[in-house]
Amino acid sequence: xxxxxxxxxxxxxxxxxxxxxxxxxxxxxxxxxxxxxxxxxxxxxxxxxxxxxxxxxxxxxxxxxxxxxxxxxxxxxxxxxxxxxxxxxxxxxxxxxxxxxxxxxxxxxxxxxxxxxxxxxxxxxxxxxxxxxxxxxxxxxxxxxxxxxxxxxxxxxxxxxxxxxxxxxxxxxxxxxxxxxxxxxxxxxxxxxxxxxxxxx
Length: 201
What we know:
The protein is α+β, with helices and mostly antiparallel strands. It is 37% helix and 28% strand. It has six helices and seven strands, in the order H-H-E-H-E-E-E-E-E-E-H-H-H. The strands form three sheets. Strands 2-3-4 form a three-stranded antiparallel beta sheet. The protein is elongated. The model has no long low-confidence stretch (mean pLDDT 83).
């Protein structure tokens, strides 16, 4: 049989564990909510889901590919056989995967990223959907509430990739450099872009 001190200690540990679990859950909910919102938040005040706000200086995929080849002659582009609206961007590399293209050429390629075929906006256009997330303001309340502990938030669904997003991927991978971008694309965006600044500084 447990003594009074042991019972109090166990009750105290149980309460502490409950409070710790509640705090952890609230922190996780806050992170989940933040992750949903951060993917669709505006860029320097521009609505990133609005094509007209994101179009900037549009380029055809052909123009983008030609300019990128001037930046790095080892870049290779192939229209996706499963989705002709997308083009794969690859690096010709001896340690890559052996690939026979539709023209019968045998290449060794490393995949870098994808891009749009046709006309590309300067900045990526984010297509939104809505997600139900737990309402952290109601979670863990001591007093009962009849409110449903969920709220609906905008979140990422898909992306129409802008050519500056492709440049960022290639810059981060070390496949092109700032001098290349300045010479063939122009470093300064056609409109203010905090994302471009943050991702290229």
